[in-house]
Structure formats: C-alpha cells, structure tokens
C-alpha cells in the first residue's frame, strides 16, 4: 500500500481554510436560505441554518473516515432514496420562499433552521459524492489541524456572510424581495436536479 505522508501543520491549516472558503462561497441551497433570512434581519435563523449544514458535513466526514460512505456508494438505490427526500425538501423550501417573497418583507414565511440546514446536506447525493471523493484523503493528508481549520473557517464565513447580508438588507429594502426570488430559482433548480439525479440512481 502506498504511504500518504501528512503535510505540515500550517500547510494543513491554510489548505483547510482555503478549501472551506472555496466550498462555501458558490451559491447553493443553504446559502440561498441564509441570504434570504439574514437580509430580513433574521440573523439567528441564518446562523442556525449554517450550523445545521456544518453538522451535516461533520456527519459525512465521520462516515467517510469509518468507511460508511464507501458502503453507501455501492448501494445507489439507498442514495437515490435519500436524494429524493432531499429534492422534496428543496422544492418545499423553494415554494415557501416564493410565498414569502410575494408577501413582501414582513410577511415572509421562508424557512431557515438547524434542521433545514442539516437535512439539506445530509440528504444530498452531491455531499455524499464530495465526501466519498475527498473525505478520507483529506483526513489522511491534513490530520486534525486541517480538518479543524476547514470547519472553523466555514463557520466564520457563515457568520460574516450573515451579518454582511443583514447590513445590506437594512439599507436596501427593495433588494430583499429580489434576493428571495433568486433564492426560489436556486432552491427549485437544485431540487429538480437532485431529483433527476436520484431517479437516475434508482433506475440503475
């Protein structure tokens, strides 16, 4: 078996931090929920959604380390069922966000909570695929310093993102509804794509 050497602690920390930013920055369903909540002044809701998503990633990391992710990878029907549940969750969030956008700034019922963030990540086939491809290798190469930097940086990014969007929301009320409508498109798009991918796995 080929030996994989760990890199230095500072190299691992820097790598973990940069990767966390690279993953967190692109728009996705969790970011869409956080943006919609934080621009409406619901800081706690946004942060709890981020905490749920990070908790989901911790679960995937743990499963990757003990080999359970590889076990799931050989059972596409199980992954497909998880993906369908995730697709329905995303479509429900898109519908709720759309209702909130139509109601305006003060009438929003757009969801956001620890459970939403957690189950969005935990039921995503894309999270499974990412941790399957990277989880064990990153843990082996980085060790705990790099893994810790990855999650700490992701958490700090979520806090900064939330407060920046909250600050923008207070100064651009008209932008809040537009962010909500963009969130609808992002959530619905991810929901449909996850659903299509999951059906493909179930048929395979």
What does it look like?
This protein has 204 residues and is mostly helical. It has one domain. 84% of the residues lie in helices and 0% in strands. It has eight helices and no strands. α1 (9-24) crosses α7 (125-171) and α3 packs parallel to α6. It is flat, with a radius of gyration of 18 Å. 43% of the residues are buried.
Summarize the structure.
By secondary structure, the protein is mainly α. 84% of the residues lie in helices and 0% in strands.
Set down the secondary structure blueprint.
Elements: H1 9-24, H2 29-39, H3 43-66, H4 68-73, H5 76-103, H6 114-122, H7 125-171, H8 173-203
Helix pairs in contact: 1-7, 2-3, 2-7, 2-8, 3-6, 3-7, 5-6, 5-8, 7-8
Please outline the major beta sheet.
none
What global shape is seen?
A: flat
- The total count of strands amounts to 0
Count of domains:
1
Percent in strands: under 5%
Compute the gyration radius: what is it? 18 Å
> Alpha-carbon distance between the termini?
32 Å
Instruction: Tell me roughly what share of residues is in helical segments.
Output: over 70%
Number of helices: 8
Q: How confident is the prediction overall: mean pLDDT?
A: 81
Secondary-structure element string: HHHHHHHH
- Determine the structural class based on helices, strands and strand pairing: mainly alpha
Unreliable stretches (pLDDT < 50, length at least 5) are 1-5
Features:
flat, 204 residues, single chain, mainly alpha, 84% helix, disordered N terminus
